[in-house]
Amino acid sequence: MVSAPKHGVAVHHDATVETRDGTSLATDVYRPADPETGEPIDEPKPALLVRTPYDKRERQRVEQQGNWYAERGYVVAIQDVRGRYASDGEFYLLKNEAEDGADTVEWLADRPYCDGQVGTMGTSYMAWVQNALATQRPSGLAAMFVNQGAANAWKATLRHHGAFELRWLTWSLTIGGGFAKRALDDRDLERRLANVDTGDLLENEPVTRGQSPLRHLPNYEAYVFDFMGTPGDDEFWSDPSINFEAHYDEMADVPTVYAGSWYDSYAKATCDNFGALADRTESDQFLLMGAWTHGGQSTWTKPYSGEAAFGEAMTRDYLETKLRFFDHYLKGADAWDEPRVQYFRMGSGDGAATAEGRLRHGGEWQSGSDWPLPDTDWTAYYARGDGTLDTERPDAADSSTTYEFDPRDPVPTLGGNCSSYYTFEQRDEPVEDLPLADRPTISLTGRGGYDQRTRPETLGADPPYGPLDERADVVAFRTPRLSEPVEIAGPVRVRIYASTDARDTDFTAKLIDEYPASADFPSGFALNLTDSICRARYRGYRREPDFVDPGEIYAFDLELYPTANVFEAGHRIRLDVSSSNYPRFDVNHNTGGALAGDREYEVARNTVYHEADHPTHVELPVRPA
After folding, report:
1. DSSP string of 369-391?
2. How far apart are CA 590 and CA 604, in angstroms?
3. How far apart are CA 585 and CA 583, in angstroms?
4. Mean residue pLDDT across the chain
5. pLDDT in tens, 552-581
6. Which residue of 80, 170, 395, 423 pairs with 87 in a disulfide if CB–CB is 3.0 to 4.6 A?
7. Measured distance CA(45)–CA(79) in Å, rounded
8. Quick check: 625 pLDDT over 90?
9. Which SS3 state, helix, strand or coil, does residue 15 take?
10. Where are the beta strands (DSSP E) in 384-453?
11. DSSP notation for 185-231
12. Residue 486: other Cβ atoms inside 10 A
């Protein structure tokens, strides 16, 4: 049985946690209280820690994290991270979170109202900081619920095989920089940021250091361009605050839930963390993957992601799930009886349109003992010169497809594993009348499952709008219509054999569940499942850049984000290959120039090979029939 809401709540605002370098971090502490007197109870209780860059006093955070768990018998500490809101110091994205977080855990565990056990919780940045502090093994850390957090910022989430995820630029211009301490105190700076349309900014790339709107926030501009341009072999990428994979052997051994979702921007990292740490630790480790987009309670309770509907079966209560976990591991209650691995398998819907016009893709929860699932049948589907995908390896001696990649006209992003690709809604009201805190943000990319066809609101798309695979720079390979369902669950890998006439270029891959035409969707529906990118100079998972020789054939290995889906009979499995996916990833100018700020452009002639010696293919994690 889970803890009941039987307590009142007493709050101590802005308690000071002093870190090892003397920086003061502002922390609000919520304590269970006598419901009649309002006085904190004397009995020490387990504590839950949330560290956030998003204002510890935000109403929903107060209600759903502070008050909600304190009423159920937990001490809850919510802290502004260094340099944000009421905390001292200078904010540099992620950089100080390992030590700051560890210092806070030890401070909290030592309070007389804490029983010595500290659990951590939170989503996104608030998940990232949990993994960071765990590399320090702070005393008192007893359990973690890590929802949608990172693993290795170089491999995925900040850079991706060398390419930069532009969400960190748009985040810094909106919900990051817009609420920087200087912006909160400077109405003129707030006005400047309110007037930035990040969509226009991205359509007129490149954004350059010293000339971006972030120049008014020098520390924010500094970290954006550091993450965007620092070479992969720099020690910068081994810091325990941004690369937990490099420190797995030092991670705290405590019960942990790694929660995520197939359409989240951290889907790969979530599964990577569980896969590595489940075998390294003695404590119970759990993986929970839905088909949500990025977020916590508000997304876990939605039965859809983007334009794809999955049904009420997918919804879960995020707050109650965390409560059961912490009750079990911090209070000793018999409250958690979840399988080690549970995931939402998408598909098996009827393909009709919902009342809101979404595709009824359907799905159901499945469980397993490990990840990847032990009985997975890794099956290669090979690209062929006639545009098909086939499980038979091609036997053609000479077969290839060439296209021109113009970096001034990149392939637009349509949904997928996107978060924080925002712009503030442009309004006539001045910030004096409509502050940034009250202004809606607009997604530039969409999030989740989308029909892969452009429309008027698609960033970078021009009329006539239509399917992405009709572009000259997208090469699509598809199976014949399936005679029986194909179920997959796990990592998805693609190897593209390719050459280019440029010194550097990119190759992208996208896996799609292609629906046939129907009454509700007369043109069919091309549902994106997962994607990835590889920058040529960083091919083969290298950290040191190595430019390609024009005309030479290379293997480009891409790790698409994991997924779970049933391709129904009558559908096609489709693989799209191209050289851009913008603005999900920054666009390669094909010059071999600087990673950030290159003002020169070259059109690259890129060739994809589908022949016996160079068999481009996607490897799918097929489940037994």
Report:
1. SSSS-TT-EEEEEEE-TTSBEES
2. 6
3. 5
4. 97
5. 999 999 999 999 999 999 999 999 999 999
6. 80
7. 19
8. no
9. strand
10. 389-390, 400-405, 422-424, 441-443
11. H-HHHHHHHHT--HHHHHHTPPP-TTTSGGGGSHHHHHHHHHHHH--
12. 22
Tokens of 247: 């420190």
Tens digits of residue pLDDT in 11-68: 999 999 999 999 999 999 999 999 999 999 999 999 999 999 999 999 999 999 999 9
With 90 as the cut, is the pLDDT of residue 610 above it? yes
Task: Name the nearest CA neighbour of 507 among 557, 450, 573.
Answer: 557
Half-sphere exposure of 183 (CA within 13 A, CB side): 29
Please write down the HEC assignment for all residues of 291-357: CCCCCCHHHHCCCEEECEECCHHHCCCHHHHHHHHHHHHHHCCCCCCCCCEEEEEECCCCCCECCCC
Cα-to-chain-centroid distance, residue 386: 35
Distance CA 418, CA 168 (A): 11
Q: Whose CA is closest to 384, among 609, 149, 137, 624?
A: 609
- In the structure encoding, which two tokens stand for residue 261, read together? 């979702």
Task: Give the integer Cα–Cα distance in Å for 152 and 78.
Answer: 25
Angle at 241 between CA 238 and CA 243, to 5 degrees: 40
Q: Residues with Cβ < 8 Å from 372, sequence gap 6 or more?
A: 275, 490, 491, 621
SS3 of 26-73: the string is: EEEEEEEECCCCCCECCCCEEEEEEEECCCCCCHHHHHHHHHHHHCCC
